[in-house]
Write a structure and sequence with these properties.
Blueprint lengths: L1 H8 L5 H16 L12 H17 L9 H10 E2 L4 E2 L3 H8 L23 H22 L6 H12 L17 H18 L2 H13 L8 E4 L8 E7 L4 E9 L2 E13 L4 H9 L6 E12 H8 L10 E11 L2 E9 L9 E5 L5 H8 L1 E4 L3 E6 L1 E4 L3 E5 L3 H5 L13 E5 L16 E7 L2 E8 L4 E4 L3 H7 L2 E3 L6
Parallel strand pairs: 6-11
Antiparallel strand pairs: 1-2, 3-4, 3-10, 4-5, 5-6, 6-7, 7-8, 8-9, 9-10, 12-16, 13-14, 14-15, 15-19, 16-17, 17-18
Length: 478
């Protein structure tokens, strides 16, 4: 069974530890039957109490001072406010309160209130998924979120899983089960905790960057498989992710606007990475699941220049499925976290080298209607009080090659760590870059900390003086 759970959840849940936490939470839950947060009340009141309970742990990270002493004691037994840690597994408590998990028994029967007979197990599990999904969706609305990516993944699981066989040849496990449901609930609550606290968001961003992925998707892409269209994308891999030239043919000219595309592994999904791929007839078919975002040039321009605004979303977060035949990409299906006129659920198809679009693209005149932006990582050294970034020319920053032969730094930007508290945590592997940007013909240079979206203009000595940044000839030079 432990091996099966590892397969389902890509080693993200230890079965023995889960059973221990489940029994611990179940024993604690039995003592809370009269607590206002979980006592048997109507649905609206129960949701209201549970929202307040979750707010303390995931939104406020503190126990409400307005609680009675008895309630504070109970909350203190669940949540360690000083260390911001859970003494009792909150996702399990939540699932117990919503009657999705039964209380633990020595037989280890993980059934729910919906199951009266074992034959009804499948429909019961689907009802439990719906119960938790609807609750979490309402909680997200309570927090004023339009969407949450882990909630989108959960919804996709509920749609896709019933379409595949309940078992596969390697493991006799159901396509929907409560271990997977627990993982989804935990993922949603974790994401809320990260979203609500900037310090956790930065840590999560750094951790996410380590999972950044670079699948082979460079090339021409179009919503029309045939490649006969006036609208298409050109995706190119860069050292920091990908650029997308979003092209539109108008009056014999190709107008395009650039955007940045970042992809990150989303491997903790049993259905998309295992069952769906296994059930495809093509032996060489492979489906990969990613999370990511597209930031168009207007978004970056608005960060660098406060006078620039936009009336449409400039960053689109999404999950996507990329299908491959061998290592050749076939399609990318995007599921945006919130739909807008500029980016809705859609599928782009990879075009062959001899497609009509590629021939037209090589022939017609091109016009950039967006904002030019180039970025290159050049963190060279770290001392107790400063970071040193190698000075680079515009041509070096804008170079397409991952590696610039014979590049050596003749001078360095000396950046005080006091400029940004996060700089004290930087290591030589952290992302600190030089950015070249062009605004209506005006060229500017910035020091960029992409993880926190902080930019410091260093175009002129006056710009550098604002931030205490200097140019020096040697590292460590005072």
């Amino acid at each position: 069974m432990s091996e099966e759970v590892n397969f389902m959840c890509d080693n993200s849940i230890d079965l023995e530890d889960f059973i221990y936490r489940y029994q611990q939470a179940s024993d604690f839950y039995k003592t809370l039957k009269r607590s206002k947060y979980i006592k048997n009340v109507n649905k609206d009141d129960l949701y209201k109490h549970l929202f307040a309970f979750l707010d303390m742990i995931y939104k406020d990270n503190c126990i409400n001072e307005g609680l009675s002493n008895k309630e504070k004691k109970i909350m203190g037994e669940i949540y360690n406010e000083e260390e911001d840690t859970m003494r009792i597994d909150v996702p399990i408590l939540l699932m117990l309160a919503l009657n999705v998990f039964p209380t633990f028994n020595t037989a280890g029967d993980l059934s729910s209130e919906h199951e009266k007979e074992i034959i009804k197990s499948k429909s019961s599990i689907e009802k439990d998924f719906n119960t938790m999904y609807n609750f979490l969706k309402d909680y997200a609305k309570h927090l004023e979120y339009d969407e949450l990516i882990p909630l989108i993944i959960m919804e996709r699981t509920m749609i896709e899983a019933p379409k595949v066989k309940d078992t596969n040849e390697e493991y006799a496990i159901p396509a929907l089960n409560r271990i997977v449901l627990y993982w989804h609930v935990s993922s949603v609550l974790y994401q809320i905790d990260v979203n609500e606290h900037s310090d956790k968001s930065r840590v999560a961003t750094i951790a996410l960057r380590k999972s950044q992925s670079f699948p082979k998707i460079s090339g021409y892409w179009c919503l029309d498989k045939s490649g006969v269209s006036n609208s298409y994308w050109i995706i190119k891999k860069t050292i920091w992710g990908y650029t997308i030239n979003m092209c539109q043919i108008k009056d014999g000219i190709i107008e395009y606007e650039s955007a940045e595309l970042y992809l990150y592994d989303y491997v903790d999904n049993y259905f998309d990475n295992n069952l769906i791929a296994k059930n495809k007839k093509e032996e060489k078919f492979r489906r990969s699941l990613y999370q990511g975002f597209i930031a168009n040039s207007k978004f970056l321009a608005a960060i660098l220049d406060e006078s620039i605004t936009s009336d449409k979303p400039d960053v689109c977060t999404f999950v996507c499925y990329i299908d491959f035949n061998n290592d050749l990409p076939i399609s990318i299906e995007f599921f945006p976290s919130s739909s807008s006129e500029s980016f809705k659920h859609c599928t782009y198809y990879a075009l062959s080298p001899d497609s009509p679009i590629k021939k037209i693209d090589n022939k017609l005149q091109k016009k950039n209607i967006g904002f030019e932006y180039y970025c290159r990582n050049s963190l060279a050294a770290i001392t107790c009080g400063h970071l040193y970034l190698g000075c680079m020319s515009k041509e070096q920053i804008c170079a397409e090659a991952d590696y610039i032969p014979d590049l050596h730094y003749d001078s360095f930007y000396k950046i005080p760590k006091s400029l940004n508290p996060s700089f004290y945590d930087y290591t030589i592997d952290s992302s600190l870059a030089l950015v070249f940007a062009k605004f209506d013909g005006e060229e500017r240079i910035y020091v960029a900390a992409p993880d926190s979206l902080d930019y410091y203009e260093v175009t002129t000595p006056g710009d550098m003086e604002k931030y205490g940044i200097e140019i020096v000839d040697q590292i460590g030079q005072e």
